[in-house]
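Need tokens for this chain, all 404 residues.
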Amino acid sequence: MPPLSPAIRQYLIVTGNYWAFTLTDGALRMLVVLHFHTLGYTPLQIAALFLFYEIFGVVTNLVGGYLGARLGLNRTMNIGLALQVVALLMLTVPATWLTIPWVMGAQALSGIAKDLNKMSAKSSIKLLVPGDQQGTLYKWVAILTGSKNALKGVGFFIGGALLAVTGFRGSLLAMAGALAVIWVASLFLLKKDLGKAKAKPKFRDLLSKSRAINVLSAARLFLFGARDVWFVVALPVYLSAVFGWDFWQVGGFLAAWVIGYGTVQSVAPSLTGKTRGHVPDGRAAFIWALLLAGLPALIALGLYTGHSQQLVLIGGLTLFGALFAVNSSLHSYLIVSYAKEDGVSLDVGFYYMSNALGRLVGTLLSGWVYQAHGLEACLWISSAFVLLAALISLGLPRHVGAHL
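Here are the structure tokens for all 404 residues:
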């Protein structure tokens, strides 16, 4: 076999780092939701535990893009890995120390780590693919994003399984040790100064000057708010409290959902026309969002009837996952395509700031709306958010190539 090119080797290292981080991120999310639910925390209190995770994700994507352009994406990725190890170890303290402020602080570090890692990985691909190979760029972004989400699903299952087998503290220690090994390897293997801008960006460059990126960022905010408004707190608590599922079942279902979602993301290019020589544009983003918009409302109506609730919920959310995956993959390609090559992390960081803001809004609504009005209300809000994302997408360029 011929030796791998330097670009392919760096892509594999970046992807491997992203995969390892994602496993711990998914497992930690499931550990915190299920562990604190069993301790008697309300859905709103559980949502509050993730408040700093999402808030610091908003800030990190904005500032992290600036740091990536100034310091290099290799440094921001390695900083993210190190911070996740610290966040995991913070939660291994004695149970009496696990107050809400302490857990929120650990989640804040984890949020910073996650978004530094994701911003670095997504930005790196722009630099490893020639600008005239848009089909290849779409494929690489789809593989990275899809495989990450499939592994996040595996992380959900691992979190539920570890909690049942080794307990909360043992699970965290195991994950921290494994991720520390990955971090040390990355320090030596990742290319120095990857993604460092030729001209030092100024702080005022944090906000995007591109209309296409601003519109796409607004659509992304509502798209991911539409998912997390039912997914983060409402769904796992509903499955446990209403259906009576145990840790294995809740973790297993959420794992299967995210794995399926990630798998569809990976093959999204073939679903959206790449096999016919087409790459998506703003019109494709509008159409796929519109196809998704009514589905959560239909699931809510099915739950109101009271018949075959498990079939309605599981079947409906499976279809939602498939359609949402295509929407997410389209967006992930478009942002990398729209972004400038020099200082790419500035544009990608701004975009994922909107992504994090959408998750923040969705997370808070997931706990509050579920506690006050139930899962059905969360699903109605989800439909409204997706419809807004579709309408905003009407402002995106119709032909990507002309706007690069």
